[in-house]
Amino acid sequence: MISRQYLREHPEEVREGIENKGVDVDLDRILELDEEWRDLKGRGDTLRHERNEVSSEIGQLKQEGKEEEAREAIEKSQDLKEELQEIEERADELEAELHDAMLHLPQIPDDDVPVGADESENVERCREGFDDLRELPDEVIPHYDLGEDLDILDFDRGAKVSGGGFYFAKGEGAMLEHALIQFFLEVHREQGYTDVFPPIPVNSKSMEGTGQFPKFVEDAYRVGDENADEIDDDDLWLLPTAEVPVTNMYRDEILLDDDLPVKHQAYSPNFRREAGEHGTETRGIVRVHQFNKVEMVNFVRPENSEERFEHLVEEAEEVLKRLGLPYRILEMCTGDLGFTQAKKYDIEVWAPGDDMADGPEQGGRWLEVSSVSNFRDFQARRAGLRFRPERHESAEYLHTLNGSGVAVPRVVVAILEYYQNDDGTVDVPEPLQPYMGGREVIEGGEKIGESAVGAGEKE
After folding, report:
1. How many whole angstroms separate alpha carbon 133 and alpha carbon 410?
2. What positions does the domain Aminoacyl-transfer RNA synthetases class-II family profile occupy (predicted)?
3. Is residue 458 pLDDT above 60, yes or no?
4. What band does 279 get if pLDDT is binned at 50, 70 and 90?
């Protein structure tokens, strides 16, 4: 969350920032709550000081034998105590209301973020890999058809086992996902990342710490209860991204200056209901409820976060460069920035199998495979992430950044479509071959079961 001090000193900048993000928040009400809370805290301090003075007088009056005046002082002390208790109770109520209101207040965009209403006003920063494209088949088969033809993706059985939005990767399809995960992890180890294997369920406090709650409750998978039920800090949820557990590793801790920067990477399966995305992707693995991803999470000094952000973008795009996949980088405008981010770049890989209106002139479409974000101290304030510049100095909030390194299923889509051959096989990018037992080509498997016989594919 943003600091209350910043809100008090720069209310119009905050107002402009949330308007540019297109977030509907009653800022005036938040300012009123804060002003009332500060007034009560001030009155409480005054009453507490006055009561202490009266208490000191009582003993002195008794020593001087002024019993009547002592009794009056005792009565006054009791009145002050009761008034102070009422003020403190009201201040506590306001504190809780103000804290909840501040959780709905988004991060303010950096000054250099382009102002825009929605994704149509994002700014393309660069496009890589299009100068030397490989020769593609005359008609590129979309990954969902090719995956079923090769029997490396099985959507019907995924839906049967778990419901819509789930799939089986089989044979060389499963090998490809495993290979990508191992390849991504190895690249980021070269970049100085320490591996973390996080727990899959995370508690509500952790979801709040990274900004998933309260805004994105509907997108989460809750363990054991309905999403609409009252939420406790200890309730468990399936993680939507490894950002949540890894960022919260150090929640309510103080790191040392010598520790920074901390660079962690984590592979995890991720679970999202995609509650606001019904009907957008009904075929294939572009938008599914469970997907694999490697996440990079950085903890840095505030003065280093801008430079680290640029390096994080380079670290994320490195895997696409090595795989030889064409891609572009977009800078998000304010209206498409997201609730928690001060600045964000999306990396989108090119998938040539399905022509989309917003695709490149070569045809096909763009698929977001990484979002690289600078949260500044927004998450740190929510999660209590601090560092101590010097042993004798006060602790300060550090800055957090993260980026996908990268989302596996959409890279699978790009590989199946971009490295597709005329005969329906798929070349394995050279960096992945050691992770696939030396395979150079994905040739597919043979379907099994009576359904294969019935379809005439087996004798």
Report:
1. 19
2. 138-429
3. no
4. very low
Q: How far apart are the C-alpha atoms of 216 and 207, rounded to whole Å?
A: 9
Q: Is 371 one of the catalytic residues? A: yes
Tell whether 78 is in a known binding site.
Answer: no
> C-alpha distances in angstroms, 251 versus 89, 104, 323, 385?
28, 20, 36, 5
- Is 418 in contact with 411 (CB distance < 8 Å)? no
Give strand pairing partners of 328.
127, 348
In the annotation, is 189 catalytic? Answer: no
Structure token pair of residue 239: 């993680």
Identified catalytic residue from 368, 388, 396, 439? 368
Report the Cα–Cα distance between both ends of the chain, in Å, rounded. 63
pLDDT in tens, 199-250: 999 999 999 999 999 988 999 999 988 888 888 888 999 999 999 999 999 9
Catalytic residue among 272, 308, 328, 365: 272
Give the C-alpha separation, 410 to 426, whole Å.
16
Q: Give the residue carrying structure tokens 């405008």.
A: 333
CA–CA separation, 44 vs 279, rounded Å?
55
CA 169/CA 450 separation, integer angstroms: 20
pLDDT above 90: percentage of residues in the chain = 83
Whether the Cβ atoms of residue 314 and residue 420 lie closer than 8 Å to each other: no
368 is catalytic: yes
Q: Is 206 known as a binding-site position?
A: no
Q: Is 288 annotated as a binding residue?
A: yes
Residues above pLDDT 70, as percent of the chain: 97
69 is in an annotated binding site: no
Q: Is 430 helix (H, G, I), strand (E, B) or coil?
A: helix
Q: Which residues pair with 367 in a beta bridge?
A: 349
Nearest to 331 by CA among 122, 73, 27, 97: 122
Encoded tokens for 161: 């086992």
272 is catalytic: yes
29 is catalytic: no
Q: Is 241 annotated as a binding residue?
A: yes
Strands 254-256 and 262-271: unpaired
Report whether 270 belongs to an annotated binding site: no
* Letter string b/e over residues 132-144, b meaning 16 or more CB atoms within 10 A of that residue's CB: eeeebeeebbbbb
- Catalytic member of 287, 301, 322, 388: 287
Is 248 marked as binding a ligand? no
